Structures are given as C-alpha cells and as structure tokens.
Amino acid sequence: MSSRRDFLQKLSIGIGAAAFTPVTSKASIFSGFQRPGKQLRVALMGLGGYANIVARAMTDCKLAVLKGIVTGTPSKIPAWQKNYNIPDKNVYNYNTVHQIANNPDIDLVYITTPNSLHHQHVLQIAATGKHVLCEKPLADNAQQAREMIAACKNAGVRFYVGYRLHFEPHTRELIRMRREGAFGKIMHVNNYMGFRIGDPAQWRLRKALAGGGAMMDVGIYALNGARYATGEEPMWVTAQETKTDKVKFAEVDETVTFQLGFPGGALASCGTTYNFNNYERLYVIGDKGFAELSPAFGYGPIAGRTHLGPMNQPEITHQTAQMDGLADCILNGTPDPAMTAEEGLKDMVIIDAVYESIRKNGEKIFL
Ligand code: NAD
User: Fold this and answer.
1) Residue 319 falls within a domain, yes or no?
2) What positions carry a catalytic annotation?
3) 210 in a structural domain
C-alpha cells in the first residue's frame, strides 16, 4: 500500500460492504424522520475522488438526495447525469454556478474541491443563498474560516464542515460515555492519523492548493478527536515536524507531532504523517476508564473497546449517515451535531498554532 489511492481503496472495502448492508443503526441515531417526503436537495461541487464516494453513499439516503453538479470538466458530465439522474438544468460549471441562486431544485451545495479553494467557493455559494457544506479542512487558516462564516451568516444560510465521524456510531458512543462521566476525569489522549502519500505531482503536495500537508489533511482528525475525547478546548499547543524527504515534501509538512494542554489538566499527544501507513488510533483515558478506537478515523469499519469491553456499535456508511443527519437538522430542526462551521474554525485556530509552534522550534503557543 503506497499511495492515497491505495489507502482510499482499502477504506472503500469497508464502504462497499456497508453500502450493501442494510443500515439498521439510523433509526437509533436519528429520531427526527418526522417529515417523510421532504428531502434536502444537494449539488456537489468538484467531482473528484471524495465526491464520487459521497454521491454513491447518497443513493442510500432517505432524507437527502443528489440533484445537481458543479464541475470544470465537461467530460465528467454525461456519466454523472446518467448515474445519478441529474437533469441538464442542474448542471453548472465554476463560471455559471452563481445561477444556482435561481434554481429551486437545490437547497445545499456540498463543496469537495481542493482545500485552498474552499474559501472562494464558500463565498460564491453563500452569495447564491444556498446552504453550504464544505469539506475539511474548512480553509487554509482561521482568518479565512472567519470570513467564510461571516459570509454565510450575512446571507442567512447554514454552514457545515464535512466532519462525517460525528454521525459515526462508535464515535458517538465514545462522546456519550465521556459526557456521562464513564471515563471519569480525562487525564490523557493519544491520537494519530496518517498514511504514505503516493503521486508526487498531486495537489495535496502543493501548498497553493492544499494549504498545508499531513496536518491539514489528516492530522485534523487527531486534533478534532482530541477535542471530542476531552470535551474541552485546548489552552496551549506545542508542535514539531520532521521531513525525511525534503524533495517530495518541499512545500508541505510531512510528519508532525503536536501536544495540546486542556483546562482540566489533560494532555493530548498527537501525530500525523504523509510518509507511513498503519498510523490511525484514538485513545482516551480518565481516572475511571478508557476508550480506544482503532481504526478510528477512516471510512470504516471503525473498531473499538473500552474498559467495559469491546464496542459493538453497528458499521454504517459514514457519508450516508452524514447527509441524512444534516438533512434531519436542516429539515426537522434536530440539534446540530459538532459539524457546524464554528467547529471547523476551532480546529483551524489550533492548526494555525501548530504551524506557528513548528516555525518557532516547538515554542508553546497559548490560545
Ligand atoms: P480530488 O483531487 O480527488 O478531487 C478534487 C476535485 O476538485 C477534482 O474533481 C478537481 O477537478 C476539482 N478541482 C476544481 N478546481 C480545481 C483546481 N484548481 N485544481 C485541482 N482540482 C480542482 O480530491 P479529493 O480527495 O476528492 O478531496 C477534495 C476535498 O475533500 C479535500 O478538501 C479533502 O480534504 C476532502 N476529503 C474529505 C474526506 C473525508 O473523509 N471527509 C475524504 C477525502 C477528501
């Protein structure tokens, strides 16, 4: 396994299995399917690898439906129209997307373009008056994220970030147990997420399109996980980077470790990489118990155990649950999960501090 494609393929084995398995868990996750017939109508913007995964997963959605596409590559259009029954009037490119404002068939645009385009694309969609779901990382930095949130607020539209794990049953159970005190006072978190990236020409290795490297792309899972494992916001950050391949990783970070200090006294020790595989785990321990998810952050199957024994949560297709879950929030007013853009901004503030600490040779950055 030597590339992101291999990594995603491995993950998609889980997706494939889950996609063809009856999803029995949704009823237990979402209580709010009170308005059958009404659906959240979604357009996908940026038809790359992840958009394909989302589109396929959405064929199993009950409350969300794929109705439109935005693409700069005309050759992709026929297959997408055929596979997802998308009419000509719901097909846009990056120059015509402003016209989506006049399209009553679309409620929300899901932005799945490279990281550094998220800022401009969210501003563009907010101006159309459609709700916005943007992939992680929300932006290149916290300042951009604040501008995006302000634009959506001014336009009166909802704005979410694609943190699919907040609809994932093991993750939700871990958060529930922590909230109810099952682990006691949280003492330590140890999270890591990374993989060996392939093609040296891909946008993920270009700072102008990726914003950063492993930290931005998958370190964000370890970071977000530290926040939901503790239920607190860190007070300070320290971070270190090592680059073993200075050519391939000339523009972006390769392997980063970072530490977070929380108000309750817990420390999180986290890592991320673009240079090796089999690096994916969430571990949280308190004075009464612990939880370990491993794998913790990929598309599944997620597996876990706690001090009480193995976790037996159902395996689901994350993107199906995410899209039905968000539709439930928007259509039925069920409480927002921790997928609001404000949650994405909190991670961007911390990522800014991680990079600042690296630039300052590991100096402690207070938040
Ligand atoms: P990708 O390269 O497969 O797709 C990106 C798409 O954006 C392509 O269709 C490309 O044509 C289009 N695009 C538009 N303008 C572009 C430009 N100027 N340069 C390059 N491409 C341009 O990437 P991906 O893996 O689908 O990732 C897209 C986004 O989704 C990223 O922000 C990534 O972090 C996120 N993502 C999230 C998850 C998750 O589990 N939540 C998983 C994978 C990717």
Assistant:
1) no
2) 136, 221
3) yes
